[in-house]
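Researcher: Next entry in the queue.
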Amino acid sequence: MAVGVPQVPNLCHTTGVAVWQTSYDTQPLLHAGVNGIELADITHQRYPGLLVVLTASHSNEAQISVGGCMLNIARAAICLLMMIAFVGRSHAMKIEEFAAAIEPKLERPSADQIADFEQLIGHKLPEDYRNFLQMTGGGGLTKLIGFRKGDLQENVIQMAGLGIKSKGQPSDLVQNFHKPGFHPLPKHLLQIGDDSAGNPLTICLREDRFGEIFIIDHELVSFDDSKQESIEDAEKNGGLAISLAPSFGAFVASLRQAP
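Model: Structure for this entry, 259 residues:
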């Protein structure tokens, strides 16, 4: 740590709060976090607009800003303790947890059904996503579970699956492969779900970006199948495609359930 940066009271350390420096200005910026996740990041996800920043003042006294209100270090420690009660339980969501949050109305697909789907689309599915499909037939979520990427913050409202809703009808995933609701999707993307704003959640099946999760801005979809773009062009095209995570497992781990 640079000279002049105040020491954080032991109270913070013993409660599992990690504090580290990220700049060497006259007022060094410090970040506080729990289990490797910044409190500022967690609180923004759960309580949008609540900003938590720990700084060193000109008088070399550590201060914390919570929602724009400055507190001295003694009160800051108490404030952090109170926050830990709410955010300290945040953890990386597991695929099993996410699957369990989907309404169990549709029958889970068999291994043969998943293999048949892979044959239909001409691709092996990423292993983590394949495991997810074995746990659920797809459907709406029964809990508020959301994601955030920059200024984008939405909830996942449903996940497509291979469960059959009615005899003779294709599953949602098969339907999405043939013609998703918003089309054309950028090349090599398969729609696997929807967010609360109506944007398709997709997974990439192209080898060099295999398994990457993208969200598609439905307001920018052309509905002209002759204008199907590459993923890279869609990323440049005003944000038609936005990468959310490098894999399905990483996407699920980034999700947060509302308290």
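Model: The chain has nine helices and 14 strands.
Researcher: Noted, moving on.
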